[in-house]
């Protein structure tokens, strides 16, 4: 038998309290209880993903190598996936892809158009008032 302990998703999901919190990152199981108070990003975010797959949350922050070393120290085993478990989470960069830049450009042109039309109107209104004044 291998030394690595195996946890099912439901095992992990039982550990959600501050004093006893597990999480899954890249299909490995970590006991983060001792680290909750020390986390530079705050305890709240860790407890939010307690008992769950935190891969995406962890990777989205872009944690340093130091953070990954700390993580290794908290490793307690591997995740054993069972039928019906949530699909593995991966950090998808595509989901955070910037929105179509043409939207912003379109808005920019719209703003210019409004400013130009406004300026033109002001100009003609001024001309009109001037000519009226000269007549009287
Ligand atoms: C056990 C897993 C985790 C470990 C060992 C860990 C470790 C660390 C470390 C060492 C830092 C300092 C910056 C760095 O070295 O990258 C940090 C910052 C941070 N972490 Fe985590 N983290 C974990 C999980 C998470 C999760 C699940 C979130 C969820 C969103 C998160 C959110 C953050 C944020 C927002 C910061 C930035 C704090 C700041 O710069 O003000 N972390 N983490």
Automatic annotation (TrEMBL):
Residues annotated as transmembrane: 104-126
The record places domain Cytochrome b5 heme-binding at: 4-80
What Gene3D superfamilies does UniProt report for this protein, alphabetically?
Cytochrome b5-like heme/steroid binding domain
Q: How does it sit in the membrane?
A: Single-pass membrane protein
Q: Which SMART domains match?
A: Cyt-b5
Alphabetic keyword roster: Electron transport, Endoplasmic reticulum, Heme, Iron, Membrane, Metal-binding, Microsome, Transmembrane, Transmembrane helix, Transport
Q: Which GO terms describe its biological process?
A: sterol biosynthetic process
- Any one cellular-component term (Gene Ontology): endoplasmic reticulum membrane
Report the subcellular localization: Endoplasmic reticulum membrane; Microsome membrane
Give this protein's Gene Ontology molecular function annotations.
heme binding; metal ion binding
* Protein family (similarity comment): Belongs to the cytochrome b5 family.
> Which InterPro entries does this one have?
Cyt_B5-like_heme/steroid-bd (IPR001199), Cyt_B5-like_heme/steroid_sf (IPR036400), Cyt_B5_heme-BS (IPR018506), Cytochrome_b5 (IPR050668)
Record has Transmembrane helix as a keyword? yes
Q: What is this protein called?
A: Cytochrome b5 heme-binding domain-containing protein
**Where is region (Disordered) located?**
79-101
């Amino acid at each position: 038998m291998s030394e690595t302990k195996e946890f099912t998703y439901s095992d992990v999901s039982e550990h959600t309290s501050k004093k006893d919190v597990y999480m899954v990152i890249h299909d490995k199981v970590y006991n983060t209880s001792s680290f909750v108070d020390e986390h530079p990003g705050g305890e709240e975010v860790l407890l939010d993903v307690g008992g769950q797959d935190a891969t995406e949350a962890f990777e989205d922050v872009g944690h340093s190598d130091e953070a990954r070393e700390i993580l290794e120290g908290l490793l307690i085993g591997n995740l054993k996936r069972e039928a019906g478990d949530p699909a593995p989470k991966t950090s998808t960069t595509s989901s955070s892809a910037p929105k179509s830049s043409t939207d912003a450009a379109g808005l920019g042109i719209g703003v210019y158009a409004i400013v130009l039309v406004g300026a033109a109107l002001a100009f003609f209104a001024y001309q009109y008032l001037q000519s009226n004044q000269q007549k009287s």
